[in-house]
Structures are given as structure tokens and as C-alpha cells.
Amino acid sequence: MPKDYYKTLGIAENASDDELKKVYRRLAKKYHPDANAGDKAAEERFKEISEAYSVLSDRQKRSQYDQMRKFGSSGFGGGFRPGGFPGGFGGFGSSQGNGVRFSSEDLGGFGSLGDIFSSLFGDQVDFGKRRRRRPSTGRRKGSSFAAKLEITFEEMVKGISKTIKLKRETNCDKCSGTGVEPGVGKTVCPQCQGRGMVAQSVGSFSVSRPCPRCLGRGEIASKPCSACGGRGRQQVSQKVSIRIPAGIEHGAKLRLKNLGQPGVNGGPNGDLIVTIYVQPDRFFQRVGNDVVCKVPISLKQAVDGAKIKVRTLSGSVVLNVPSLTADNTKFKLSGLGIAGNSKRGNQYVTVRVEVPENPSDEEKELLNKLMSEKNVNA
User: Fold this and answer.
1) Which positions of the chain have pLDDT values less than 50?
2) What does the DSSP 8-state code read for residue 23?
3) Of 64, 107, 370, 373, which sits with the fewest C-beta atoms within 10 Å of its C-beta?
4) Rounded distance, CA 336 to CA 346, Å?
5) Residue 273 DSSP label
């Protein structure tokens, strides 16, 4: 079944940014792994919520998703997936080297669905009367390369530079990407007859994709390059430094230009798309740019009042707990949340009153006093 991000979050298609953010914060707080230790269902629900929010909170992605969703509902059969292309394409959601899939991140900047398909398949897409063509053997941008990077909660708060190791393809040094042994000519590809594309029918329309034999060049080597076997590419290991901004969201994607797969026929390289995964913190829970935490206090501290130390993102502060503070009372520490999108959030501290299992007479008296006050305020 295709994913419906609006249904995942329980919002209308015309929901405003503020409504979206409000619903996300509520659901994220409810299903966050820290609040549901060991609950795999809650963890999966949290991932679904985060995925939906990462698309719908970005205006460009949301617009593209709405286009794809509308198109899918009219018989196209696909769903919008951040990790790949709509599922209704069968073989066309395929990988290209290292198991890297065409990604919805590659949809950025295209003005129409025709442009989207042509950009992905570099070809012609036949939608009944409308037919879009472009030269099959022209310069084409390489596909995107996907990578994942895990960072700690503290690294997310402060921002950090990380170096990752990649195994990716580049044009062969010996043949410069032609696939031909230097000094030897080329012949027309017998599989695509020189067109560089092969067509396949899918339902009521047809889609052409780069020929797998000549990689869209339209020609093959009379004598393949001895270094790359005629592929025109070689695999290399590379270290890439990535600057991760402070306050980045879990599941956010960073795009590094020209670090993807090599282009075809002299086209530019694709991009490297890095998905950021933020490890949960044992003490803090993130809700938007706010952080929430729970701090235990004794029964005596709750009744008499106390000054307690509370951990914040920038060190410890002293929190004044007034006398007769009830269990689950929440305190706001303004401006001590996460700095993101030019706005810093707050920290919310919930105090939990620890009641002993076998209270002494003195503790019973304190508990009665606290409960009496709670009933009066109620």
C-alpha cells in the first residue's frame, strides 16, 4: 500500500505549517522511544511520524509529494517513498551500483511530472497524447548516491563536522569513462540499435530507460577497456567531510553536490545524499526545538520546597521548587532548548515526587499534607 503521510499524521491535506508542527510535536512526544522503552510498535510509529513530517514540513518536498500522490490516486499505482521511487513502477525503482536507489530527493527543482520522469529515466514517457522526448545519447547527470550517518544527541545540539568513508564509482582513469581501450574505435550497440534507450510498456503507457548494455551511450567498444572491462567506471574509496548544522532534525537529509555516481556522456556527477540519524538521549527528549526531561524529588522536598540542580544542554542550573509542589508539576526554563531555524526552544522540567513503598509516620504525614493541598487546589 502507498504511504499516505497526511493519514499518518492525521491531518487534512490543506493543514497549515503551524497545524502540522503542533500535531507532529504531540505525536512525537507520545511515541518517542524514550517514553516507550522496549515498545517496538511505538518505535516503528515514531519512525513513520518522523518520515511523514520530514516530507510535509518541507514546502518543496510537500508540493512534489502532493503531485505524486494526486497522480498515484488516478491509477498510477505508486506511493511516495523518501528512500526510493513510487512502488507502482515495477523494475523502474531499480538500483544502480552499490544498491543505491533513485530517491525522491532527486525530484527537487523539476516543474512537472513529465520533467520528473524524464529526469529519472533520461528519456521519453508516453502519457497517451502527450509525449516528451529528448536526445537519448546526450549528456545526462549521474544518479544520486545515498549514505547514512549516525550522530549523538549532544553532537546534534552543538553541530559537528564528520568524516565518512564511501565506496563510489568514478570514470575510469584509463579510458576517461568511454569504456573503450585507448586507440580503438566503437560500434553501434546491438541491444538498443544506437538509441541509448530501451523501452518497456507499463500498463497504458511506456517508459524508456538507459540501455543496460551501453549505459545509455548508444555505442559499445570494439575492444573494451582492459582496466574497467568496458564499463567506463571504476570503484574508489573516498573520505568526505560533512558539516552537520546545530539542531538538525532526526531523519534530515544533507545534499553534497557532485559526489554521486558519474554522469553519462560527459554529464555532471550526481549528488551524495546523507540521511542523519540522531541517537536518543537518556535524559532529554526532543519536541521540535524544545527539550523535555523528568527529575525526581523526595517527598520532603515536594512539601517543604527545595533548590535542585537540573541538567541543561549547556550545563547545570538551579531550579527553585516551591513548597507543596505536586507530582508531575512542569517548570519552564526559557531559552534553554535547541537552537534551530534561528529560534531557540525552551526546556521543560517535570518533577516526579518519589513516594516510598513503606513510608514512615513522618513520611505519611508529609504525604497527607501534600495530598490535602492538591485536593484544595483541585
Assistant:
1) 1, 73-136, 376, 378
2) H
3) 373
4) 5
5) E
Q: What is the pLDDT of residue 72?
A: 54
C-alpha triplet 96, 97, 103: angle, nearest 5°: 45
> How far is Cα 85 from Cα 83, in angstroms, rounded to an integer?
7
**Helices within 248-328 (DSSP H only):** 299-304
E-state strands within the chain:
125-127, 130-132, 145-151, 160-171, 186-188, 197-202, 205-210, 219-221, 233-244, 253-256, 272-278, 285-287, 290-298, 306-312, 315-321, 329-333, 339-340, 343-344, 347-354
pLDDT of amino acid 127: 41
Determine the Cα–Cα distance for residues 261 and 96; give it in Å rounded to an integer: 9
Residues of the chain with CATH 2.60.260.20: 58-278, 289-377
Task: Evaluate the CA torsion angle 42, 45, 47, 49 in order and state its sign.
Answer: negative
The contacts of residue 143 (CB under 8 Å, 6+ apart) are: 96, 97, 100, 102, 106, 260, 261, 270
AA identity, residue 321: V
Model pTM? 0.52
CATH of domain 289-377: 2.60.260.20
Structure confidence by residue, pLDDT tens digits, 88-119: 333 333 333 333 333 333 333 333 344 444 43
Q: Is 201 helix (H, G, I), strand (E, B) or coil?
A: strand
Residue-wise pLDDT for 314-361, tens only, equals 999 999 999 999 999 999 999 999 997 778 999 999 999 988 888 787
pLDDT of residue 198: 86
Separation CA 279–CA 250 (nearest Å): 8
CATH topology of domain 58-278: HSP40/DNAj peptide-binding domain (2.60.260)
Q: Which CATH class is domain 1-57?
A: mainly alpha
Taking phi over 0 as left and psi of -120 to 50 as alpha, with beta for the rest, 27 belongs to: alpha
Tell me if 305 sits within 8 A of 362, measured CB to CB.
no
